[in-house]
Amino acid sequence: MAATILLFDLGGVLVDLGDPVGEMDLPLSPDQFWKQWLSSPLVHEFETGKLGAEDFIARFGPGVGVADAADFGRRLRRWRLPMFAGVEPYLRSLVSRHDIALLSNTNEIHWRHVLSQTDIFSSFAHLFLSYETGNAKPEQAAFLDVVQHFDCAPQDIVFLDDNSNNVAAAMANGLRARQVRGFDELKQALTGFGI
What we know:
Elements: E1 5-8, H1 20-24, H2 30-39, H3 41-47, H4 53-60, H5 69-77, H6 87-95, E2 99-104, H7 108-115, E3 126-129, H8 130-133, H9 140-150, E4 157-161, H10 164-172, E5 176-179, H11 183-192
Parallel strand pairs: 1-2, 1-4, 2-3, 4-5
C-alpha cells in the first residue's frame, strides 16, 4: 500500500536537536537536561500553548540552574535547531508526489527559529504544531487531528518520529510508523515503506 500522506516529526527527524546544554551553558549533564525537559509539566504547558514564553522562561529556568529569567531567556534563544543537511531538497522532491505534513511538539521560540532558516514548510499540506493545536504527542488527540484533517484512514498515513513512545502511540492509533533519527534513517524508512 502506497502512503497518501507523509507525516514527519520535527526535532531529531528534520532538524538537529543539537547540544542544548552546551549552547545554553547549563550546569547539567545532557541526560539530566533531557530528563527534565521531557518530563516537565511546564514544558508540556509551554508546548501546548497553555503557558506563554515569558512565563515559561521565568518558571523553568531555576529548575535547570538559571534563576534569573532574563538570563535564561537569552540562553534558551541560543539553543539552535539546524536543518539536517540534505533534508530540504529531499522534502521538495517528495512534495510533488505526496501530501506532506508536520506533527511536532514544539513551542513558539523554537518554531520561529526553525522558520528563520527555511521556507520548506510553506510547501507542506498542513502543520500540526502542538503549541497551536493544544495537543501533544503521544496523546491520541494529536493523531486524531491529522486523520480528521485529511479525512483519511489512519493506515493511509506514514509517520516518522525519533521518540519510540510517539511511534508506539501512532501505531496504536492505526498509523504506519517508524522510529528514525536523522536524515539517513528517514530516507531508509521511507524506502522501506516503498516511497
